[in-house]
Amino acid sequence: MALFVEELTKDFGGLRALSGISFSVEPGKIVGLIGTNGAGKTTCFNVVTGFSKPTSGRVMVDGTDITGKPSHQLARKGVIRTFQQTSLFGKLTVYDNVRAGLHRHRGSSALDVLFNTRKYREDEKKINQQVDNVLVQLGLMGRSGIQADELSYGEQKRLAIAVALISKPKYLLLDEPAAGLNPQETSELSSSLASLRSDQFGILLVEHDMKMVMEICDYIVVLASGKLLAKGTPEEIRTNTAVIEAYLGGGKKESVNSR
Amino acid sequence: MKKIYYLLAVLIFLLFPFVTTSPYLQSLMILTGIFALLAFGLDLMFGYTGVVSFGHAAFFAIGAYITGILTERMEWSLAATIPFVIIGSTICGLLIGLATIRIGGIYFSLASLGFAEIIRLVALNWSELTHGPMGLVLNPEKLRLIGSIPLKGEMAFYYLVLITVLITIYFVYRMRKSWIGRALMSIRDNEPLASSIGISPVLYKVIIISAGGGIASIAGSYYGYYYGLITPMVSGVHYTTIALLAVMVGGRGTLAGPLLGAAIFALVPELIPGEFSDLIFGAILLIVILLSPNGLAPVLTRTFLSFRKKFNRVKKKEEGELDVGT
Question: Of A123, B21, B164, B231, which has fewest CB within 10 angstroms of its CB?
Answer without folding.
Answer: B21
